[in-house]
Design a protein that fits this description.
The complex is a heterodimer of chains A (478) and B (453).
Chain A lengths: L1 H12 L4 E17 L2 E19 L2 E8 L3 H17 L15 E5 L11 H16 L6 E17 L4 E18 L4 E6 L6 E4 L2 H5 L3 H17 L6 E7 L1 H13 L4 H4 L29 E4 L20 E6 L2 E2 L6 H6 L9 E2 L8 E2 L4 E3 L7 H6 L3 E5 L2 E6 L5 E6 L1 E6 L2 E7 L2 E5 H6 L1 E4 L6 E10 L4 E9 L2 E8 L3
Parallel strand pairs in A: 4-6, 9-16
Antiparallel strand pairs in A: 1-2, 1-5, 2-3, 5-6, 6-7, 6-8, 9-25, 10-11, 10-15, 11-12, 13-14, 16-19, 17-18, 18-21, 19-20, 21-25, 22-25, 23-24
Chain B lengths: L8 H10 L5 E17 L2 E19 L2 E7 L4 H16 L24 H4 L3 H17 L3 E17 L4 E16 L5 E8 L7 H12 L11 E7 L1 H15 L2 H5 L20 E3 L21 E5 L2 E2 L6 H7 L22 E3 L7 H5 L4 E15 L4 E14 L2 E5 L4 E5 H6 L1 E4 L4 E3 L13 E3 L2 E8 L2
Parallel strand pairs in B: 7-12
Antiparallel strand pairs in B: 1-2, 1-4, 2-3, 4-5, 5-6, 7-19, 8-9, 8-11, 9-10, 12-13, 13-14, 13-15, 16-19, 17-18
Helix pairs in contact in B: 4-5
Classes of the chains: A alpha+beta (478), B alpha+beta (453).
């Protein structure tokens, strides 16, 4: 494969200023039960080559399945034709990078594809039964996900590397319905559950069946729970919901292609300008955010990005002030950075790399555990899992809904509340952050469907965080 | 057979099916050839050409369905794919509720394929970009957007007999023009034929919005009379498609029309249907289960009329599949409408819809629209790229963008007038294997639309 890709980029270099080629082989298994029967049992595999060329200032990219030499050469021809067909544009340099060389694999103790299908399904059915055991649940879902991606990369600058990533995880959901309402609870998270760079051990450590009774009880209880009140109050975010808050209001906003206006047509722009580093305050002094492509087990971890740039840990917010961007080689050069941030990622062989998040993490603070934080909060709300999300095209005004909230009263976790929601403006919201829990409370949540790009790409990311508290937040908006 | 000698798709489906060895099974094959060019600030940014095929085999056994997919069309690849599907269907001994795959009939004829578009000439895209750049520049704006065209070929073979094939093309272009002051305007259009797009006209429309003079009005939260352009209407209907017309959700009691079929859910002038061969849509003949797509009334004269089904949801509800499967054996998310048509009304256009509005909001486009609560069809979204104040019956000046949080069925219930002319609108979000859908709908005016910020 290495030789084929090197031949392709050598051939491309005769016609283009720059070229790279990626062969990506993907294997995925997705399993789900629904109310005690198999609901989704899908095995997928695909492989192909994507070739990217830069002619003048125009990029051309063509993808073809498999790795046949003739087909790949034809794809190279299409990439060049597409690049040349576009209106002429001046192109700047790419940020320099030492050509990548070598191989890397993510940790995997037990290959999820070696575990017998019957065993995985039996675990899901056991969990499914546990969700329904107490009654009152209309739909019970338990799901498993395993994926392996092997990427071989070569560039016209001499890069040649290969990396293999194995991911595994799952989740559960319980849906309760009455005539007027339906309520759902999920564990560990609502968007695809929790998936890590891990082998089968990543799925087993979720211990889904242990959490099934609680999730079911909460879903049923939500039907009768009081509605989340409306007004301004103290809000504690944890787990998935805090991860999504980081993702939508900070992670996407610091993607340099958005900052430079290159994504206006789809993903949108940003509240941050290209010269805002060091001056734009987007949070309180307690807010420190790092984009770390080396966080163990996280889905945004790799050795090289899809431009062959080595993984880095980038300061994004320091003391509440913008400290850096997520960048690719092209975008980094455009604002004069000496090196790409290593954030160019593609969802597969048939998509070209875009500026994407790695693991955009909120650094831990010193507020102790979640229980400590609740105890230190007189009155407020706690939201952990997400039900709906929306943010404007500059990543300023957001509105989130949770599956459930817990009332905090007198420093204790109180009643369950249904239909919680909150909204705000990014700088004010993060500016109101007055507590972040300590390192032992820090954990990673995953998002397996971060969408961006045209044609669309779902890229997987993770966010590390410890529960955090925000003051004077507008809640009960939906 | 060589891996790279791509046969005709019906033949490939039959070869894949042959490896299921007489089991109740279906082989669904899709080939995508597509081209997409993006641009920003009046220059090209990314261009992607894709040529790929997905073979999906679904095997049914004792009410269970196992699925496997590959893009390896060699005999070894197809054999492995079929083996995986069979193993998945045979796993464990817990019976399921899937009714099994039936025979596949011939796909209904339609006019959803344009040979010129299928040629996928990059020069067509290049000319479209150049035309948009020229108009936008002449208007003193910078152009952002994208142009895309594709051919999708599908073939489905069933173990119970029959094979169906379908070929479609789709094209889409959108232009967002940004004026020097930062105001933006949007125009977009979907079509079966790339030749049906008018890049210069789109750029003119977008630039006109971006350059509308006047001090931007500050509109706060509250309930407003709104004129929605067709693009915004399409976004709302797309969300309603999942919230209300998904036959699986409906059967499980979580859909927005559960218990409401036969009841009034919208204004009497609202007529919405799934119309897969309506001339103005991206017409399709079959779904991935090989079921011929049929028209389905969804809301008739404001009364909830029906939902769409795949084989699984149809069996669960005692209905017949309407050809709305997203995957053979049923996607976990359930079936979806793919060709919604909202019938137009009596207003000549957006200007006439604004007449009679003393003070209201004109919305070009909704963005980051998501469902908040399915049973209520409650959604939230923000306005973007062309929000204006309506005063005394006409658009007078730009306005700030707003967050809408309202029930789609509620908006349709408060719909006072619809435009006569439909547009084919789409967000053209092609995640995974391309499956182009679009909604034909007119602009409309609704009162009491709730903005929360």
């Amino acid at each position: 494969m290495r030789e084929l890709l090197l031949d392709l980029v050598d051939a491309a270099a005769r016609h283009a200023d720059y070229a790279d080629a990626r062969h990506v082989a993907t294997r995925r298994e997705r399993l789900a039960t629904r109310n005690g029967v198999l609901d989704d049992v899908l095995a997928e595999d695909s492989d192909g080559v994507g070739i990217r060329v830069r002619v003048g200032g125009a990029w051309g990219f063509a993808a073809v399945r498999g790795s046949g030499r003739a087909e790949c050469e034809a794809a190279l021809g299409r990439a060049l034709a597409v690049a040349r067909a576009q209106p002429a544009a001046a192109g700047g340099p790419l940020a320099p990078e030492t050509p990548a060389e070598g191989a890397w694999s993510s940790p995997c103790e037990r290959d999820p594809f070696d575990v017998p299908l019957d065993r995985k399904l039996a675990t899901l059915l056991e969990t499914d039964a546990a969700i329904r055991a107490g009654g009152g649940i209309a739909v019970a879902i338990a799901h498993f996900e395993g994926r392996r991606i092997v990427t071989t990369f070569a560039s016209s600058e001499g890069a040649a590397c290969v990396q293999s990533v194995t991911e595994c995880g799952g989740g559960i959901a319980a849906l309760a319905v009455d005539g007027e309402d339906s309520q759902i609870r999920s564990y560990p998270a609502s968007h695809g559950g929790q998936v890590d760079q891990a082998g089968y051990e990543g799925f087993m450590r979720l211990r889904l069946a242990d959490h099934a009774p609680r999730i079911a009880e909460e879903a049923a209880a939500l039907l009768k729970a009081p509605a989340c009140p409306a007004g301004r109050m103290t809000l504690i975010l944890a787990g998935e919901q805090l991860g999504l808050q980081i993702h939508e209001s900070i992670g996407h906003a610091v993607e340099l292609d958005r900052v430079l206006g290159r994504e206006i047509s789809y993903a949108g722009g940003s509240y941050a300008g290209p010269d805002a580093v060091g001056s734009l305050r987007i949070g309180s002094p307690l807010v420190n955010v790092t984009a770390d492509a080396s966080t163990p087990g996280a889905l945004g971890t790799f050795r090289w990005d899809d431009e062959g740039v080595e993984a880095q840990a980038l300061p994004i917010v320091r003391g509440g002030v913008l400290a850096g961007f997520l960048s690719s080689r092209e975008s980094a050069a455009e604002i004069g950075l000496g090196r790409s941030g290593g954030c160019a990622r593609a969802s597969g062989f048939d998509r070209q790399p875009l500026v994407r998040m790695t693991n955009v993490n909120l650094d831990p603070g010193d507020a102790g555990s979640l229980d400590d934080l609740i105890a230190a909060t007189g009155e407020g709300l706690l939201i952990e899992s997400n039900r709906s999300w929306s943010i404007d095209d500059r990543r300023l005004h957001f509105q989130f809904g949770g599956e459930a909230a817990w009332e905090i009263r007198g420093g204790e976790r109180g009643r369950l509340l249904r239909n919680p929601s909150y909204s705000g403006l990014t700088p004010q919201f993060w500016g109101s952050c007055d507590a972040v829990c300590s390192a032992p409370a820090w954990g990673v949540t995953s998002l397996i469907d971060c969408g961006k790009g045209e044609p669309g790409q779902f890229v997987r990311v993770s966010h590390g965080s410890a529960p955090a508290r925000f003051q004077d937040v507008e809640v009960g908006v939906a | 057979m060589s891996r790279w000698a791509l046969p005709d798709l019906p033949g490939l489906a039959e070869r894949a099916l042959g490896h299921t060895h007489g089991r109740n099974a279906i082989a669904s094959v899709v080939r995508e050839r597509s081209l997409l060019m993006r641009f920003a600030a009046g220059r090209p940014t990314q261009a992607t050409a894709i040529d790929d095929v997905t073979v999906e085999v679904a095997v049914a056994s004792d009410g269970r369905v196992g699925r496997a997919a590959t893009n390896d069309t060699s005999d070894d690849g197809l054999r492995a794919c079929a083996r995986s599907a069979a193993a998945a269907a045979g796993a464990l001994a817990v019976p399921g509720s899937f009714p099994g795959f039936g025979p596949v009939g011939e796909a209904p004829a339609h006019a959803g394929h344009d040979p010129a578009t299928a040629a996928l000439d990059p020069a067509d895209g290049g000319r479209a970009l150049a035309a948009a750049f020229e108009v936008a520049g002449a208007e003193g704006t910078e152009a952002h957007g994208g142009w895309t065209a594709a051919e999708e070929e599908r073939a489905v073979a069933s173990s119970e007999g029959g094979i169906a094939s379908d070929r479609t093309t789709d094209a889409f272009m959108k232009v967002i023009c940004i004026a020097p002051g930062g105001r933006s305007g949007y125009a977009g259009r979907a079509s079966v034929a790339a030749g049906g797009l008018d890049p210069a006209a789109l750029a003119r429309r977008a630039a006109g919005k971006a350059t509308l003079a006047g001090e931007p009005a500050a509109i706060g939260p509250g309930e407003r009379t709104v004129v929605f352009e067709a693009s915004a209407v399409g976004t709302l209907l797309d969300l309603l498609g999942g919230a209300a017309f998904d036959g699986l959700a409906h059967t499980e009691g979580r859909g927005a029309l559960a218990g409401r079929i036969g009841h009034r859910v919208a204004a009497p002038g609202v007529n919405l249907s799934e119309s897969p061969r309506f001339a103005a849509t991206l017409q399709r003949g079959i779904d991935p289960e090989g079921t011929a797509k049929v028209p389905v009334p969804l809301i008739q004269d404001g009364v909830a009329a029906g939902v769409v089904h795949d084989l699984r949801s149809a069996a669960a509800s005692g209905a017949a599949s309407t050809g709305n499967a997203l995957a053979p054996g049923g996607d976990p998310e359930g079936p979806r409408p793919t060709n919604m048509v909202l019938i137009g009304g009596g207003a000549a256009g957006e200007d006439e819809l604004c007449e009679g509005v003393e003070r209201g909001v004109y919305v070009t486009r909704l963005w980051y629209a998501n469902l908040v609560r399915q049973r209520e069809s409650l959604v939230t979204a923000v306005t973007r790229d062309g929000t204006f104040l309506i005063e005394d019956g006409r658009v007078t000046r730009p306005a700030n963008d707003l967050r809408l949080t309202d029930s789609v069925l509620g908006i349709l219930a408060r719909t006072a007038a619809l435009g006569a002319r439909q547009e084919l609108v789409s967000e053209a979000e092609y995640y995974g294997r391309r499956f182009a859908t679009a909604t034909a709908c007119p602009p409309l005016r609704a009162r009491g639309v709730r903005f929360t910020a």
